[in-house]
């Protein structure tokens, strides 16, 4: 970023090229700001500095609403997004703002790595063994054994490059920390035709 600023203050850049370089600097500044904010969020979560503000919510409605908010993103990439929920409403005590962050990170990740004309399915399963379970499936290439082990590590990517995409490399790490704060579990596995993330949360009657 400093290199682009130096260029603008030099005599080597034509005036008509200024908007292009200003746009690049703006983009890099926004990405840096996002990275700093997410790094702060991850560290506070990891150190247990966050306290949960739990309220009772209907998990069925939460899953439907957050999924529907991503329909424009899916349509832009020509992805099919389907949502399946049981007929019986599932009421659960969660910190809704933090859990929304988890859902958003998982859906954004699915959209990012699903090829065009692919499919994403989000399923809320009926309660079993006092556990509420939501699966996030997307078509696409399966993950390597190394990635399955390290995917929730901060800054990890399968190509071992950091932040080469629009992400910061912290989204899944933050999601995992929030789930752990809820005494839940977040895992990933390769399945037929794609990848499936499984979110499990304790459900008390």
Describe the model.
- The chain is an alpha+beta fold and 205 residues long.
- Helices cover 42% and strands 21% of the residues.
- The strands form 2 sheets. It has a 5-stranded mixed beta sheet with strand order 2-4-5-7-6. Strands 1-3 form a two-stranded antiparallel ribbon.
- A hairpin with a 2-residue loop joins strand 6 (185-191) and strand 7.
- The longest helix has 29 residues, at 18-46.
- The chain is globular and about 60 Å long.
- The model is unreliable at 1-5 and 159-166 (pLDDT under 50).
Approximate strand percentage? 15-25%
Radius of gyration: 20 Å
**Terminal residue distance:** 53 Å
Largest sheet: 5 strands, mixed
Global mean pLDDT: 80
Query: How are helices and strands ordered from N to C?
Result: HHEHHEEHEEHHEE
Physical arrangement of strands within the biggest beta sheet: 2-4-5-7-6
Indicate the percent of residues in helices: 40-55%
Number of strands: 7
- What sort of overall outline do the alpha carbons produce when their principal axes are compared? globular
Distinct helical segment count: 7
Which stretches are poorly predicted, pLDDT < 50 over at least 5 residues? 1-5, 159-166
Structural class: alpha+beta
Topology:
Layout: H1 2-8, H2 18-46, E1 55-58, H3 59-68, H4 71-76, E2 80-84, E3 91-94, H5 96-113, E4 119-124, E5 131-139, H6 145-150, H7 171-181, E6 185-191, E7 194-202
Name its key features.
205 residues, alpha+beta, two-stranded antiparallel sheet
Short description:
The protein is an alpha+beta fold and 205 residues long.
